[in-house]
Amino acid sequence: MTRTVQAAVLALLVAASPAAAQAVPDLEEIRQKTGLTANDRSRIQAYVQQAVQAMVTNTDLDRHGIVAARQRLLEEVQNTENRTGAYRQAFVEEALPVLKKALEKAVSQSARANVVMTLAGLQTIEAVPLLQSVLADDPYPASRYWAAKGLASLAPKIRQRLEPRIERGIADTIGKALQKPQPTLVLMPLFDAVGTFDHERAHDVLADGLTRVAKDLDASDPVVRRLVSEANRSLERAYSREVRPDAKKELLLAYAALCAHIMPPVGASPPPAGYGRLMADLNASLEKITGEDVGFESTDPLPLQQLSLLEWVERLARTKQIPRRPEMPAAVEEAVEEGWPGSGAAAGEAVGAGPSADKAGG
Question: 69, 52 in Cβ contact below 8 A?
């Protein structure tokens, strides 16, 4: 290829690249300002628009350009050493409307996910409405995950600032999201967020959501075990602060649902790490909040520990501490109908017969 042809090709490539055709606005001289002018904000807006444009139009197979654009934006907010608080606040204020427009236009999964990652990374309560909108409507699990993660990371700040209206709004959005099937990785930050709040609506969503999804959780998945472990702490905290009798019953119902569906795997030797601790933690929380004891022994084999958790379900239902018995695995339902815990055989066959047991047993 001659130099003339090479130069012509290079010229075409430069002309076709918006990022290359337009110089990146220089923000260096305004990053240390404590008061920003309208012109300063215009420069910030131009910087954000260029980075977001690169994010939503980049077609690199390795997505390097998208990631680089996102990192440039977040550096301006997260770098507290070389940027003043006033500058970073102005940057957030200028970035939000640009990111909102980008969400309206971006169609690819990668572009949308990176826009939402940027929103979450801004770590500002002002981003909450946009994150809620993504969680409610976005078709891609990756985008919903980052929206949920963004809400979860903001939850402690919202709680500290005593924002009950925002807490309720987020709880409502999460409650609606939990009525649809969600990947486990999306469920984790959803329960993390709602479990952080003290609002009554958050307690209701936590209880109803866990009761709703318990039957679909496969405890052979380490992510599920972590989810249940953290949810257990959230339930205990919510129960200790809840004053409504009916709400307390719903929180106990969520406990019962988890107890019913944490099935130890059949034939796994040794069993996956974390099963015993998970069941012991559920039992310890129930002992603490009810003042009762079903004879759970953490040194027992896992099937016997599961029998103790099932005994919690039956005791809570029998004493009307929960409004109803939760949905149980089919094998456990059959054992109960046959008179469990009368004979050890029927109950023993039921333990470990849930989805995770089928998977482990092959």
Answer: yes
